[in-house]
Write a structure and sequence with these properties.
heterotrimer; A: about 350 residues; 2 domains; 13 strands; B: about 325 residues; D-Maltodextrin-Binding Protein, domain 2; two-stranded parallel ribbon; about 40% helix
Chain lengths: ~350, ~325, ~650
């Protein structure tokens, strides 16, 4: 071990009186509503385990109330977990003293908030430098550093503004810059863009992707927006009622949902843009010609359309030079066609519809 | 938490710095002078005299003349402290009052503050004779000649009913701080009356004027010297005759108020260190008419206390020059 | 119509579900059956037990003697008991010292210096407008001829406010941060704010004697609750996410407090300062009773002489001071950090104005020039005399109507009913309106009044308060509704209410005394003037706070204005209305007590007499406690204002 940037094992967070006693008791398996009725406690995070690799963008996705915001706060003990293990870069966070914890927050993990959490009485540059200030850094140095970060997030020239003079998107850039200013190993995002307008949200997502490319930090990203999760996440954890239902790459989630809940979630995802050929190829039928164009198994279905259209032979899907199956034009069209009503796991009945 | 501890610490430090051995109330006798005093402290090197101002105009007349003389003849600064009678005595203990210029009896307070606590001393008579009693407007005495005997009051109780007297006759009293036995008298003389407090001297005066002008029945507590007797005719009710000691137990009083020889009380400190101002207070003596003329000017002729005092001083040089310290 | 009670899943969205027509009538009958039966029971019991278990007043109660003895003990040991030597007397000394210091400082500035400083602070807080208001306000005080008394009042106010803030702000921060502290502090503050100011003069006098120190402490007690409350609120209201952001960056608790919580709470805390000052100023006349120098002395003296003009002028001076302090602190609360240049301009202007004022001090006379002063007392009195002379019949009629029609009958009932019946009735009523806890507290308070041997006087006070509150609430409601419905009316009413709210409560006694001579009705009129503005304002605000969309929806359904008012606005403003009633009653109590100075009698008189007469001390002290109990009782009864505990809310849950 030790290679994971973040490792979470059996994490629990239960709010309410005598929360500690519930874990391990039969009550722990109750549905949240029942638990609350019986004990007055609310289980926000229930027995969650996952690992985040260094440099990875790990997305936690769930509806509101699913416990995802509590989970991310548990990572730096902004909310004290009730039980479980928590390792950041191999170090046990739960065992840290207040001072060690402060050090962790000051230098290694920082966070971006949904509602920004900027200090309205401070100028932008002082907001960005806040983390450096509480570390005890001198004014000139921290301002210089904050200036550099501001240009990194595209806010040069706004150093002396006050937060309320900026638009929402720009305010969140300040929040982002503040988190980046301390040069942390891990960045935590708690639904950072859900308060923003759709267009600005798209810009900001692009910004995160760009930053990730440039600075290569490990990121844990909380969202309730599936398209955002699919766009940003290398791996996605889907949470429901405090527990993780499934962890996987976007393809795995769309292609093989673990249960009805996840399937329902990903139902409207344009599969052809997420799934690769691997998910729809089949063994060649007897007599089928095998001299069609060859594509790697990782090719997204959508990208295979031109090849399929350009040839009347089935496409040969190869993985590392080895043939894993074939995909015909009909198969591809079936996958690309937007589905109106689909059963959870698609035994895609290749019915003919008017649009096809 | 930390903050509170800090504050506690600061206070403790302050205490420690002040002195060891505790603080007595007289220690600050000169604390907190008023703006007027501090503002021209330099101008009046002779010092500051704090005269209590009790809430009736006769008292204010005395104080006005004394203050005028202290300021203009002796060069003192006078600070007037508006207070009721009994708190004024307390003021002599706390250092907020130097002089009570018209004291009505108060044997109990004399015992406490002069004999026991030794914070005050007597400074002689003002020359004014004080009378307290119950009065009706003259027209009532003419219309009901026997009303002036207290024994007949119950017969007329209905006349004095008001909305405030709860079905009984109303006996109108003044300021709650005044010397009064009225509640006990009503009870002990078995009168069908209720004491209702008008709240102030002015309210009594207003009631007396209305009762005379509008021929409204009125039975009220009042006193001499008072300028009103020059304007409105009031007739005193005869209560059981006062004899020495009949009013010693305030709960059992069933006799008239005693004749008062109004006198002056000063704080011990002022008596010791008051210099010429103290001598002036000690020598001060005048008649009821003197007081009434000044009070009348203050109340009815629109004069300020200072103007009224000035007028009297200019007209009565011989009198006040006799008071001046040699 | 659905005949069978078909229960379907409740629709997800209707919070205040409208009563269902059919079975609701029966339910409503059931709902009113209880109270109706209660009323009948009380009336029947009253008829049966009238005149029994009454507690007539007795001046000789053992408790009063005991309290007198306690007073005598304190008096005798003031200079020997360690509590006094090492604690109480030091507090007295320290506070007196503070007052002397502040007062000396203000006097040393001289009048030009003080006006300059005020203008400078105004400039600093809110620019030239506020600077002008500050300068004009303080100069106005001089023009009225009350400069010196005003300086004393200002000094007393500033000393008391300083102490209030020194204690209140840290306590408020603590309470804002800790729910446990808040739970302890809140009820104490409740009581402090309900307490009629009169009631704690006796204990303060006993501990600290008369003089500015006592006055400062009394003022401080009254002025501190808003400082604590608003600071706590401000600290609590700091957005959690901002604090979290700070913590997520590894800030220590202290760093978060100093760099995040306090700066973010600062503006609100300034409002607390503002409220504290307002509260302190309203105590000015009252503390004149215990030998505090200042404008209050002139007010009280004028009151004793029934001289309306002479009282109005210092009253106006207090209002001027109040306006200046209010505007300066209010704009300080609103101020935003500007750039470096703006800051330079602000501080530069402050320095220039202050320096100019101070520089003028030696050049000009030490006392405010007499030739600048204007005399307004005479003309005011002429008007009052005229009214007195001409409206006599009308005012007398009003007085008698209220006294014979309302006060006397109610008082007869309350004093002739057995004490247990009154207590039980209060218990039932409070239980019904505000829940069981409130009911028990209210009943316990009444039992306390009985135990203090002040039942009869308590009932007399209660009578006046009930009648006065009734009139106050009716008038306030009418004005508030009118103001909420007509912008034009509201615009006209607002300045009147503003002025009425800043005037020291004592000044209301005067016009009342002038018009109605002395008695309970005068106190009622005064409390009317005192409390109506607040009630009207709360009603208006409550009605205006009803969301426009709801009103729009009601209008679009074809409601008339009247229907909108009765079916939408008033029900939705329920909490504001209850709060208005609550405030109206508490304020009325405070004023009725002060009304003792003009012959309203009862408990207020006991307190006044306790201050003024040695042998009445015990009774006065007990009366102060009884007043607190009455205040708490009245507050609890009307506490339904909290809304949460209202029994009606359960209807459809």
């Amino acid at each position: 071990m030790g290679t994971a940037a973040i490792e979470v094992r059996g994490l629990w967070k239960i709010f309410g009186p005598k929360a500690g006693r519930i874990i391990g008791s039969p009550d722990a398996d109750l549905e949240p509503a029942q638990l609350r009725a019986k004990t007055g406690c609310t289980a926000a995070v229930r027995d969650v385990s996952f690992q985040v690799r260094p440099g990875e963008v790990f997305v936690v996705m769930g509806l509101s109330g699913s416990g995802k915001s509590t989970l991310v706060r548990c990572l730096t003990r902004l909310i004290e977990p009730t039980a479980g293990e928590l390792l950041i870069d191999g170090q046990d966070v739960c065992a840290m003293s207040a001072r060690q914890l402060r050090d962790l927050r000051r230098h290694r993990v920082s966070m971006v908030f949904q509602h920004f959490g900027l200090l309205p009485h401070r100028r932008v540059v002082d907001n960005v430098a806040y983390g450096l200030e509480i570390q005890g850094m001198g004014k000139a140095e921290r301002h210089e550093k904050a200036g550099r970060i501001l240009s990194l997030v595209g806010l040069e020239g706004h150093e002396d503004s006050y937060p309320e003079q900026l638009s929402g998107g720009m305010q969140q850039r300040v929040g982002l810059a503040r988190a980046l200013a301390v040069d942390p190993e891990v960045l935590l995002f708690d639904e950072p863009f859900s308060a923003l307008d759709p267009l600005i949200r798209r810009d900001m997502q692009a910004e995160v992707i760009r930053l990730h490319r440039e600075v290569g930090k490990t990121m844990v990203f909380i969202t309730h927006d599936l398209s955002e999760a699919l766009k940003l996440g290398e791996r996605i954890a889907i949470m429901r009622a405090g527990a993780i239902v499934q962890v996987g790459t976007p393809e795995e989630l769309v292609g093989a949902p673990a249960d009805d809940y996840v399937a329902d979630f990903v139902r409207d995802v344009p599969r052809s843009q997420v799934l690769s050929l691997r998910w729809i190829c089949r063994d060649p039928e007897p007599g089928e010609p095998l001299d069609g164009p060859e594509l790697p198994a990782g090719t997204v279905i959508h990208d295979a359309v031109p090849a399929a259209m350009g040839s009347d032979r089935p496409i040969r899907v190869v993985d590392g030079g080895e043939l894993v199956g074939v995909v015909s034009r009909v198969d591809i069209l079936g996958a690309v066609r937007p589905r109106t009503e689909a059963p959870p796991v698609p035994p895609v009945s290749a019915g003919v519809s008017g649009e096809a | 938490m930390k903050k509170l501890r800090l504050i506690a610490g600061v206070i403790a430090l302050g205490l420690a710095a002040n002195a060891c051995g505790g603080a007595k109330v007289e220690d600050d006798s000169n604390a907190a002078p008023s703006a007027s005093a501090a503002g021209s402290a330099a101008a009046s090197a002779a010092g500051t005299v704090k005269i209590a101002i009790n809430p009736w105009v006769g008292y204010e007349a005395d104080a006005a003349v004394l203050a005028y003389l202290m300021e203009h003849e002796l060069g003192y600064k006078v600070e007037k402290v508006t207070l009721a009678e009994e708190p004024s005595w307390q003021g002599m203990e706390s250092g907020d009052v130097d002089v009570v210029i018209e004291n009505w009896g108060h044997e109990d307070l004399k015992k406490k503050y002069i004999e026991e606590k030794k914070v005050a001393v007597e400074a002689g008579s003002t020359g004014n004779k004080g009378v307290i009693g119950w009065y009706v407007p003259e027209w009532m005495a003419q219309k009901y000649p026997d009303i002036t005997d207290y024994k007949n009051l119950n017969k007329y109780a209905d006349l004095f009913k008001t909305s405030e007297s709860g079905g009984k006759g109303q006996l109108l009293d003044g300021d709650p701080s005044y010397v009064t036995n009225d509640e006990a008298l009503v009870k002990n003389l078995k009168l069908d009356y209720k004491v209702v407090y008008a709240g102030s001297e002015a309210a009594l005066i207003k009631a007396a004027k209305q009762a005379t002008d509008q021929k409204k029945p009125l039975l009220m507590y009042f006193y001499e010297p008072q300028w009103l007797f020059n304007q409105v005719k009031l007739v005193k009710i005869n209560l059981p005759v006062w004899e020495e000691g009949c009013d010693s137990d305030p709960k059992k009083v069933a006799c008239d108020y005693p004749p008062y020889d109004l006198d002056k009380i000063v704080s011990k400190k002022f008596a010791d260190t008051g210099g010429k101002a103290f001598d002036l207070v000690k020598n001060f003596q005048w008649t009821n008419d003197d007081q009434n003329s000044v009070a009348d000017d203050m109340t009815n002729n629109g004069m300020s206390a200072e103007d009224a005092a000035k007028k009297w001083v200019e007209a009565n040089a011989a009198k006040w020059q006799a008071w001046m310290p040699k | 119509m659905v005949s069978a009670p078909v229960r379907t899943a409740p629709p997800p969205m209707p919070p205040p579900a409208p009563p269902v027509p059919g079975p609701a009538r029966a339910r409503r009958l059931v709902r009113w059956a209880g109270p109706a039966a209660g009323v009948v029971a009380v009336v029947a019991l009253y008829a049966a037990f009238r005149g029994t278990a009454v507690l007539p007043h007795d001046d000789d109660a053992a408790l009063f003697h005991w309290l007198n003895d306690a007073r005598d003990w304190v008096d005798a040991n003031r200079n020997s008991s360690p509590i006094f030597l090492y604690v109480v007397n030091y507090i007295r000394l320290g506070v007196a010292e503070l007052y002397t210091l502040v007062q000396g400082g203000l006097v040393a500035l001289g009048w030009p210096g003080l006006i300059g400083l005020a203008a400078g602070l105004g400039w600093l807080a809110g620019g030239w407008r506020i600077a002008l208001v500050a300068a004009a306000g303080f100069a106005g005080v001089g023009v009225l001829g009350f400069w010196e008394a005003s300086v004393d009042t200002l000094a007393l106010t500033l000393s008391a406010v300083t102490l209030s803030l020194l204690i209140g702000i840290p306590l408020g921060i603590w309470a804002g941060r800790s729910a446990r502290v808040r739970r302890i502090v809140t009820p104490v503050l409740d009581v402090m704010q309900i307490m009629p100011t009169f009631s704690y003069l006796s204990p303060i006098l006993l501990l600290f004697l008369i003089g500015p120190a006592s006055a400062t402490i009394a003022t401080m007690i009254y002025a501190m609750p808003p400082a604590i409350r608003i600071t706590a609120l401000a600290v609590q209201r700091v957005p959690g996410v901002t604090v979290e952001a700070s913590e997520s960056l590894g800030a220590t608790g202290l760093q978060t407090l100093l760099k995040v919580r306090l700066p973010l709470a600062l503006n609100t805390i300034m409002l607390g300062v503002n409220q504290t000052i307002a509260a302190a100023l309203s105590m000015v006349p009252l503390v004149a009773l215990i030998a505090a120098p200042g404008l209050g002395v002139d007010l009280i003296r004028a009151l004793a002489r029934v001289n309306v003009g002479a009282a109005l002028v210092p009253g106006v001076a207090i209002v001027l001071i109040a306006i200046v302090l209010d505007r300066v602190t209010r704009s300080a609360a609103r101020r935003r950090e500007g750039g470096r240049r703006a800051r330079a301009v602000r501080w530069g202007g402050f320095a220039v104005l202050t320096a100019a004022g101070i520089a003028l001090t030696p050049a000009l006379a030490t006392e405010f020039p007499e030739q600048w002063q204007v005399q307004v007392v005479r003309p005011i009195n002429d008007v009052v005399d005229w009214i007195e002379g001409h409206w006599y019949v009308f005012t007398g009629f009003l007085n008698d109507t209220v006294a014979y029609g309302l006060l006397n009958p109610l008082q007869d009932v309350l004093t002739s009913a057995p004490w247990w019946l009154v207590t039980a009735a209060v218990l039932a009523f409070a239980w019904r309106v505000s829940g069981p806890a409130a009911g028990l507290v209210a009943a316990a308070c009444l039992v306390g009044v009985a135990a203090l041997h002040l039942w009869e006087h308590g009932m007399e006070t209660l009578t006046i308060v009930l009648v006065a509150s009734l009139i106050t609430i009716a008038v306030g409601l009418a004005l508030g509704v009118a103001a909420a419905r007509s912008r034009w009316f509201a615009a006209g009413l607002r300045p009147v209410l503003d002025a009425a709210q800043t005037m020291p409560s004592f000044s209301y006694l005067l016009p009342a005394v002038a018009l109605f001579s002395n008695g309970r009705f005068t106190a009622i009129v005064a409390s009317l003037i005192y409390a109506v503005p607040v009630v009207a304002r709360l009603v208006e605000d409550g009605l205006r706070a009803v969301p426009a969309t709801v009103i729009e929806a009601a209008r679009s359904a074809g409601s008339t204005d009247r229907q909108v008012l009765w079916k939408v606005q008033l029900p939705m403003a329920r909490n504001s209305l209850l709060l208005a009633a609550n405030q109206g009653i508490v304020m009325t109590l405070a004023m009725v007590v002060i009304g003792a100075l003009v012959g309203a009698g009862a408990l207020g008189y006991d307190v006044v007499a306790g201050i003024a007469q040695q042998e009445d001390y015990g009774k006065g002290f007990a009366a102060g406690v009884a007043l607190v109990l009455l205040g708490v009782m009245l507050d609890r009864i009307t506490q339904g204002a909290n809304g949460r505990r209202s029994p009606h809310k359960k209807r459809n849950a």
